[in-house]
Specification:
The structure holds two protein chains of two kinds. Chain A is mainly beta. Chain A is built from two helices and 13 strands. In chain B, strand 9, helix 10 (279-295) and strand 10 form a beta-alpha-beta unit. The chains are: A mainly beta, B alpha/beta. At the A-B interface, strand 9 and helix 2 of A face helix 4, helix 5 and helix 6 of B.
């Protein structure tokens, strides 16, 4: 079997500002600087490989603002908008239901809205995009 | 898995490999690669034109886990039991295609069910050779005939394919190869229907690279016309092929003889939406075939295809005799509705009496008819359904030559007359699905129409008619050709 294990990972992130700052985000230890509130980045992966998204810089006491009715009016967050491998989108279901952030305070939250300091590990355990994309699609 | 049609022991090189991609449930050759091969060669490029689908079809049908494989083609579900075989299938396809070191690979998608395979085959090819240019085309690039193709747009954007050729491909592909990449139909929403004079100059399809031992029956497809002479209100085909263009009888007959001389095949399946659109040419063709068949009883020609009923007249008997003598075996006829008033609303203006006359001649000549129906036209009521049942009870004499298809109830598709006029007909859309409409004035709802379709299907089966459970008309016609029904 020929190895097709090199693959292009694409990630789009949307940032929410609070107190005039953005959340600090590192993807595989590379700092992502948002431009107009978003990051569209690419990585070359050699599958199997994990991608780690680390979020930090949020002060839980001050970086979520609410009005008198308890509604959030400003929040520091980063949202995963899309992920693709070799151009194949991993799909809405994966983004919205199958991503978990392990927060610094020890919780595990299934969400693509990363409003916590913590770490998301995207596990790509297959050795090529064909198996990996289809595995995720069939989860 | 090794593909016979892609074997390359001599390490031959070609400029262009064009192939079908799975999955098309067809037991006869798919003609697009064979039709485009001479066009590619005319542009000065060497070409290998193959029907990979045929090999995958044969392999899948014989596979103990056929259903699991079909899950991949239809829904992109990859099961543990078949994942390595599926991977190996695509990898082999890609490696074998690239063994010819082509500059271009063309993937022909017969229906939307080909999309998964086209996408992944393109991925494997690009992984192995990013410089190889991949073109895709065919009706399968879209779910409906018209509009944007999200599927191709995403593949183009990500560089998995390089070009999408839309609509009639013969001239667009030729212009592409002549480096005229701005030609309409190449990566564009619009395309140009091939005019009649150009259509008549198209070269004969070249099946040289096809492996005929793969097919259940030795049948060659043939195209005698494009478009349609009718303007049926529900039809999205005429919304795209706006003009009816046809080839002359002499030209078609000459192709049949040439293909017989080359491949020894004497059975032809017309891929047209109708074989008898131009009655002058049709009569001429059936005369040519009849004369040939009489003079060559041991090597007579036979054919099947789509056919329209017209109002009967003094020539009807003579025409049916010619149809018989020309070798017709199976005809697919768009009846649409057994109620005359509904047929007239649709635009099919032939009477109940005409149907009876045509059935009688088909019965006399033992020609099988596949009657294509739509259940639940916009003005159809319970009373009309009762009439259909009555008709079925009264026509059981013909059940041995009839094969009934009731379809999946009326869908309103983009760019059809119905889509443009549904409001004036009192029809209200309730969702984005083609079948998602109601006509409150007569109580027609998707649920009711679905019930009618089930009732009529069961009713006709109970009366002893053969009824298609599969909704693809071409597939059913092929099954009839293969004596599988």
């Amino acid at each position: 079997m020929t190895k097709f294990n090199r693959c292009k990972f694409k990630l789009s992130l949307v940032f929410g500002k609070c107190n005039n700052k953005y959340m600090t985000v590192k993807v595989n230890n590379l700092i992502q600087k948002p431009l107009d509130g978003r990051v569209d980045m690419e990585l070359d992966l050699v599958l199997p490989e994990n991608v780690v998204i680390k979020t930090s810089g949020k002060n839980l006491k001050y970086d979520t603002k609410m009005n008198s009715k308890g509604e959030i009016i400003e929040d520091l967050y980063v949202k995963i908008e899309s992920i693709s491998l070799d151009g194949f989108p991993l799909g809405e279901r994966y983004i919205h239901q199958l991503i978990t952030i392990n927060t610094d305070d020890g919780n595990h939250v299934s969400t693509s809205y990363l409003g916590f300091n913590g770490e998301v590990v995207l596990e790509f355990a297959e050795d090529n995009a064909f198996f990996q994309v289809l595995k995720i699609k069939n989860l | 898995m090794k593909f016979k049609c892609l074997k390359n022991p001599g390490k031959k090189t070609v400029d262009f490999v064009i192939t079908t991609v799975p999955w098309t449930d067809s037991s006869i050759p798919l003609m697009a690669p064979a039709s485009l091969k001479p066009v590619i060669e005319k542009a000065g490029f060497s070409c290998l034109a193959v029907d990979i689908n045929a090999e995958v079809y044969a392999w899948t049908k014989a596979h103990p886990q056929q259903k699991l494989l079909l899950d991949f083609f239809f829904d992109e579900q990859l099961h543990d039991e078949t994942r390595y075989e599926t991977y190996d299938m695509f990898e082999s396809m890609a490696l074998q295609i690239l063994s010819f070191k082509p500059k271009f690979v063309g993937l022909s998608l017969f229906s939307y069910v080909c999309q998964s395979s086209a996408k992944w085959l393109a991925w494997f090819i690009k992984k192995l050779d990013p410089e190889c240019k991949i073109l895709i085309g065919g009706a399968g690039c879209l779910y409906t005939f018209t509009g944007r193709s999200k599927f191709t747009e995403e593949l183009l954007k990500e560089g998995i394919i390089d070009y999408h050729i839309r609509g009639d491909g013969e001239h667009a592909l030729y212009e592409f190869l002549k480096n005229n990449k701005d030609y309409v139909g190449i990566n564009s929403l619009e395309w140009r229907q091939l005019p009649m004079d150009e259509m008549r100059l198209l070269p004969t399809p070249d099946y040289e690279n096809y492996h005929f031992d793969l097919y259940e029956k030795q049948v060659l497809p043939l195209l005698g016309s494009r478009g349609c002479v009718r303007k049926c209100t529900f039809c999205d085909y005429i919304a795209n092929w706006k003009k009816f263009t046809w080839r002359t009888a002499d030209d078609i007959f000459s192709e049949m003889k040439k293909q017989y001389d080359t491949y020894g095949i004497r059975y032809f399946k017309f891929q047209d939406s109708l074989t008898n659109g131009n009655m002058i040419e049709f009569i001429k063709l059936t005369k040519l075939l009849s004369d040939y068949n009489k003079a060559n009883p041991d090597k007579s020609f036979r054919w099947s295809g789509y056919y329209i009923f017209r109002e009967h007249n003094s020539r009807t008997e003579y025409e049916w005799q010619l149809v018989k003598d020309s070798g017709a075996e199976n005809l697919s006829v768009g009846i649409e509705d057994l109620n005359q008033h509904i047929r007239y609303s649709i635009g099919k203006k032939f009477s109940d009496e005409a149907i009876d006359v045509h059935l009688e001649y088909a019965y006399k000549h033992k020609i099988k008819l596949q009657l294509l129906n739509i259940v639940g036209y916009v003005n159809e009521t319970e009373k009309d359904i009762d009439y259909i049942k009555k008709w079925l009870r009264n026509h059981t004499k013909y059940k041995d030559i009839l094969h009934l298809q009731w379809g999946g109830t009326l869908g309103i598709f983009p760019n059809t007359w119905l889509e443009k006029n549904f409001k004036s007909l009192g029809v209200e859309k309730i969702n984005s699905q083609p079948q998602g409409w109601v006509n409150r004035s007569i109580g027609s709802t998707p649920a009711k129409r679905s019930r009618w379709a089930r009732e009529i299907t069961k009713f006709s089966k109970d009366l002893g008619y053969r009824v298609a459970d599969d909704l693809d008309n071409h597939y059913v016609l092929e099954m009839l050709i293969n004596d599988k029904i």
